[in-house]
Amino acid sequence: MSLSVKHLLGIKEITTQDIQTIFRTADNFKQVLQRPIKKVPALRDTTIANIFFENSTRTRISFELAEKRLSADTINFSASGSSVSKGETLIDTVHNILAMKVDMVVMRHSASGAPWFLSNHIDASIINAGDGTNEHPTQALLDAFSMREKLGDLSGKRIAIIGDIMHSRVALSNIFCLQKLGAEVTVAGPPTLIPKHIESLGVKVQYDVKKALQWCDVANVLRIQLERQNKPLFSTLREYALFYGVNKQMLDSLEKEIIIMHPGPINRGVEINSDVADSKQSIILDQVENGVAIRMAVLYLLSSKAEVIE
Ligand code: CP
After folding, report:
1. Higher pLDDT, 233 or 201
2. Do 221 and 152 fall within a single domain?
3. What is the spatial distance between Cα 84 and Cα 78, in angstroms, rounded to a whole number?
4. What is the 3-state secondary structure (H, E, C) of 59-89?
5. Of 110, 128, 204, 268, which has the most beta carbons under 10 Å away?
6. Are residues 103 and 163 in the same domain?
């Protein structure tokens, strides 16, 4: 029971077998999380640093909780309030943290490729918790795990990823993960938020959100990442909501019931309305719950303890 990689940098680098191993391990950890005592000694004496150079609510809390459930020792680092503001580099920051005998690093960074860069300079295993507009592998794993819980084997299932595809690391990791599991993927949204040539990844493109919803079994709706846009790519949020937002009227007009997902944070009333996000079709909070089991599985499988516990 181990993975083919030393680090989890992106879904692109791992195999379908790795994904299935992570899912089977997460199935076991999900059972642990239903018990009155939700803790196992799997990573006792392992120290993990969560270093976040960019804001996070779900990912940071989920990793920290996963580490605590595995009995690891954890330290948390945020760029704000650190010596990064005094000019300290990424490499120096991480070398200083590792000098305190840290075994694994969970890192989020606004620069695409930062975890790959780091992996050339340190020995500890690195888990990418989101790098710029590139990848967010544990989000894609928890998304696919949540779909698998509802639909079983994802082979041949139709998944629409809707919204700001251009700036979304969740979109890219989802595309890689879902394709490795045999699903069909369509990306949908305004032409200005869909990268040119994305079809070369083997996905279909749909500019009409209603048609994408009619086609799919699952809609994974993404927020507009205004913080990554340095020029206007659509007129107003109101117009975006009108033409590309997912609302209840749209869902009710379909001849079937689809599953609604969103990785968070949600901009209610923009890419998704509350009557959809909070509907019985939505599994948004299941995604959050599954994130802990998936991250426990990834941490455990990448640790040196993977062979010790069955
Ligand atoms: N889904 C996700 O990455 O959320 P956070 O930015 O809150 O971690």
Report:
1. 201
2. yes
3. 9
4. HHHHHHHHHHHCCCEEEEEECCCCHHHHCCC
5. 128
6. no
